[in-house]
Specification:
mainly beta, globular
Length: about 110
């Protein structure tokens, strides 16, 4: 079963602490929650420019495509003011994507 094999091999620490991400987050897992297949790096921006980033953190990708927090079920949470932000999602083996319009965020 493919998902089970990936779960056992998944790193307990996100892999974004090197170039080109250089993310200094502290996200760690004691064990991989059910249904999790990989790490993602999610950023919030006030506008389209990279310099407008106001929050960034590693989250978990579920086999159904959902991005969740470290418990494997809760939505990925940010400590940020309520507002609308461009959402950027990065994966170590894929091109980054960004929302085409700001998304309302209600922390």
């Amino acid at each position: 079963h493919r998902v089970d094999r990936r779960q056992r091999q998944m790193c307990i620490r996100d892999r974004f602490n090197t170039s080109p991400w250089n993310y200094g987050g502290t996200e760690l897992l004691d064990e991989t929650p059910d249904g999790i297949i990989d790490w993602l790096l999610v950023s919030l921006r006030e506008d389209l420019s990279e310099s407008s980033e106001v929050a960034r953190r590693a989250g978990l990708l579920k086999s159904d495509g959902t991005i969740v927090d470290l418990d494997g079920t809760s939505p990925l949470a940010f400590v940020i003011d309520e507002g609308s932000y461009y959402v950027v999602v990065e994966h170590r083996n894929h091109l980054p994507i960004m929302s085409s319009v700001p998304v309302p965020i209600h922390p």
